């Protein structure tokens, strides 16, 4: 056993010696960096950090003369003079290094009252006093700036303490008033706030209880006896805490789904605008993950930029002062252990120069990572942007785009700079590249207002001319109608004689030679009937059922028109309401979104109706369903054109028209089922519900079939490979 430990210590020492503190090599960076655009698409970025080296390779030899190394380094703190303190849990001590990563001394390693046991947290106040979360001894130990033991803080004996509270400090911070904020393992009450005399003051920064929908229903409908048997819903326990230069406390919590990172004010309330966070998957393969991470520690620089370590993906996540993602960076999974590759990051701290110090309690290493020029530009620009200095941030953003032209935050920064100067058209272009629909809408409103102001006289003149033309047409309309009747366009004229007209106003009967050709007249009657369904749906569907006047050709034409309307809406809807780049629009997928449910409805409704006293044929069901699309076809294209002239504040018009057309279409489908199959209301409701259930079963069966087919093909290919290999 001793030989194995010696071999492990020697190997780590050799690795540390190979990478002395202060050595920089950007080309050897094992990290890949990622960002996320406004659509949630993962984008690759230039490397954000490069490994500088490892800290801890120059420790003095152990008492037995063997090389000494860190073991399970759990936490790290960097003071105002860039001195580094490591809570070395496995060796029961705190190790201090200077700003260059050279060994200075041990703290808490000597026998006596100050002897540490499995420390997991360390903090240094402005006077240089060192506070250690002495986890194994269930206390907080305080040492003077020269390392001498001063006193201990134990579980308070007085105050309103819960009787079952376990005081097991794991992390801590000390504010400018010398108040201690202690994270205790498993404590759901929040951080314990202690005074310098070990007096209990309060619990601080407690997380909120989040109930699932099922738990809410249980507490709503269960009896008192049943509710007593339910386990109590407890808030998540705080994992870590840090203090920034302005005196704000930041906490991380690994066991909750929202507000995993908090910025607390003096009242213990979270004032960080971002409430949920996203971590992109490596290489974009996993996609962005919302709530799928474990923030273990957090560090904040003087500008408020937040760096957090995710223990689940082993990624370093860089956020701005508002909690919005700037980039992440992590090691590629090449199964090689090398400097800068994190396996189980446990602690994180920032130097004044922006270097990241990261402890890894599995590999027993402490990594030093240095920001690349790309990361420095992003942080500088994001800091200026957060302060509202949009024009000053313009040049850094431009330099960022030279490295990554797809970085959306840079385009957003440029858009704000253009808007600040009143260059609204340029701002619109940058907002579009940033996929920011709201910003684009604000800039477009300004452009539209200026356009209207410049052309106000022409617009008023045009409106007056249109009004005059309308009055003239009304006065000349009788003569125009008589002229049109001479060519048989208008039924019931002196030139063509009386013409029979159906109840919908569509002409029918023999067509004189002067009138339209037969196929054109039939198409005109179909079109008139299609339009009439908006006003008299029952009459139209009854005629389709009794007169069998609907045609397959016209139904297919309506289906094609609906498909064209759908694709046109996807492609040409105004950016304010559809902020998706044209290159990301998939016409096949967009068409399938319309055709698959619609054709499934036709097939399943016919199948259900044949078993449920339906009178309509398959043709009736198909043609009737196509006629029910009249509101969708009539509204979609005009609404698409109108959307390009509206801003977000006028979106109520767009969304109302869109939802009204959808509701109208659904209502017509209901009327179609009732009329085509000659049902009453109750039978119609049953038919519709059965149709929807049949559609669900059909889609599930198709999904299972496709899945099994892929599995069968995979099995067959592997079987053939095995036979070839063994043959």
Walkthrough of the structure:
With about 725 residues, the chain is α+β, with helices and mostly antiparallel strands. It has three domains: about 325 residues, Neuraminidase (6 Propeller); about 80 residues, Tetratricopeptide repeat domain (Serine Threonine Protein Phosphatase 5, Tetratricopeptide repeat), CATH 1.25.40.10; about 190 residues, no CATH class. Helix content is about 40%, strand content about 20%. Helix 13 packs across helix 17. It is elongated. The N terminus is likely disordered. It is a multi-pass membrane protein. Pfam families: NHL, SGL, Yip1.
Question: How would you summarize the topology of this molecule?
Answer:
Blueprint: H1 2-18, E1 31-36, E2 42-45, E3 49-54, E4 73-78, E5 84-88, E6 93-97, E7 103-107, E8 121-124, E9 130-134, E10 139-143, E11 149-153, E12 169-174, E13 180-184, E14 191-194, E15 200-204, H2 213-221, H3 224-229, E16 240-243, E17 249-252, E18 261-264, E19 278-280, E20 288-290, E21 295-300, E22 306-310, E23 315-319, E24 325-331, E25 345-350, E26 356-360, E27 365-371, H4 373-386, H5 394-403, H6 408-420, H7 424-433, H8 437-454, H9 456-485, H10 518-532, H11 537-546, H12 552-572, H13 587-611, H14 618-627, H15 630-643, H16 651-676, H17 681-726
Antiparallel strand pairs: 1-2, 1-24, 3-27, 4-5, 5-6, 6-7, 8-9, 9-10, 10-11, 12-13, 13-14, 14-15, 16-17, 17-18, 19-20, 21-22, 22-23, 23-24, 25-26, 26-27
Main location: membrane
NHL repeats: 109-146
Subcellular location: Membrane
